[in-house]
Amino acid sequence: MNRSFEGLRGIAALFIVVHHMFCAWPHPLSANAYLAVDLFFVLSGFVISSACGPQLSNLASLRTFMIRRIGRLWPTHIATTVLALVVARHLPAFGETLALATMSQGLNVFQAGIGNAVSWSASDEMYVYLLFGAGCILMRGRTRMVVFAALALTAWALAAWIEIDRACLLQGGCLSKLVHQFGWLRCIAGFFIGALIYEFRDRLITWASHPVFQVTAFSAALFLLISADALPWSALTAPLTFGALIGALISDRGPVARILQTPAAQYLGKVSYPLYLTHGVMLPLVVSMPADVGLKQQLVTYALFLFWAFASASLLHNYVELPFRNRLNAWSQMRSHATSSQVPIR
To answer: For 219-262, what is each residue's pLDDT tens digit?
Structure first.
């Protein structure tokens, strides 16, 4: 396991939590942290390609892959969705319930978020996993790389075209509106850039892991997350900027890698998925707070929000995410063995 990637995932989750925490009282340092979602997508593309790509060769392996992905994402999604509906005191309509149950709420179905508003990215990833798995089964070698590159470029171009129409190049906030309707474009672009980085990993590792390049890539990513509005168009470079950072960390060595391997970063990485989802449960309460409240009330709100996010993330990780993931992984493994034992010996 690449421990640098684990820490990077945790840092990205923390950036997003802080970004949403300041929704009611915007802070310049957190205004662009929403771009950390694109870091999730690129990282997911690389990690999934590394862990699962070589094994995806037929429909049976695709079924096993998807069962494992469902076990990873669906239980925590359902748990936090139920909590969000309770907090919002909202009884979803039949169509909303079906979308939430199938994790399709982020696929250009609704104008605004339903259930847990931040879960759109998990929804999009689930279906991009399926697209990736199908691509691995149907294509090999150079053909696969060309198709993955075409998917990434097309999705990025469409996202840029939609955002240019919103004048984000002049006003900032590029990609921030591509959520409930077109967030899947961000997901496809980032994920397949990550998959391409995996395909070229052997060429990248010889020079991308150099300490100078690693520090430069990390600095560029940090600058983007903190001050993209200073150069509004720069937000559109997010997938490539984060891709460079991931390429620099492939070796799991170097000055940035050591920071990401610290116990704090590793803990954040361990609970990153439930932390990302569970903080969204309380977002309506944070967003609805008046912008003119006193400093003391702001600090109390921040403290309670962070306490909820980390405490509930720890509980969900231990009692929902891990148990259900392990059970579904074991079940998929049994099915895989049963299927292989039925193949006649030639």
So the answer is: 999 999 988 887 778 888 999 999 999 999 999 999 999 999 99
Residue 138 burial by Cβ neighbours in a 10 Å radius (0-12, 13-18, 19+): exposed
The CA-based diameter of the chain, rounded to the nearest angstrom, is: 77
DSSP-assigned states of every residue in 106-124: TTTT-SS--SSGGGHHHHH
Distances (CA, A) of 273 to 40, 62, 337: 10, 23, 29
CA 61 from centre of chain:
23
- Is residue 265 domain-resident? no
pLDDT digits (tens, 9 = 90+) for 23-57: 767 677 788 899 999 999 999 999 999 999 888 98
CA distances in angstroms from 124 to 32, 59, 205, 228, 289, listed in the order given: 21, 21, 29, 24, 29
Write the CB contacts of 173 (distance below 8 Å, at least 6 apart in sequence): 229, 232, 235
Taking the whole predicted model, whether its pTM rises above 0.90 is answered as yes
- Give the pair of three-digit tokens for residue 322: 């891990």
Give me the residue label for tokens 């150079």.
142
Compute the distance between CA of residue 131 and CA of residue 127 in angstroms, rounded to an integer: 6
| 339 within some domain | no
The range of the structural domain enclosing residue 207 comes to 3-259+271-334
**Residue 266 located in a structural domain:** no
**Residue given tokens 């279906």 in the structure block:** 127
Let me know if 88 is exposed, middle or buried by CB neighbors in 10 A (0-12, 13-18, 19+).
middle
Report the alpha-carbon distance of residue 321 to residue 314 in Å, rounded.
10
Identify whether 344 is part of a domain: no
Cβ neighbours around 150 below 10 Å, total: 11
Count of domains for the chain: 1
Exposure class string for 275-290: b at 16+ Cβ within 10 A, else e = bbbbbbbbbeebeeee
Tokens encoding 130: 């399926």
Q: What is the DSSP annotation of 48-106?
A: HHHHHGGG--SHHHHHHHHHHHHHHHHHHHHHHHHHHHHHHT----HHHHHHHHTT-TT
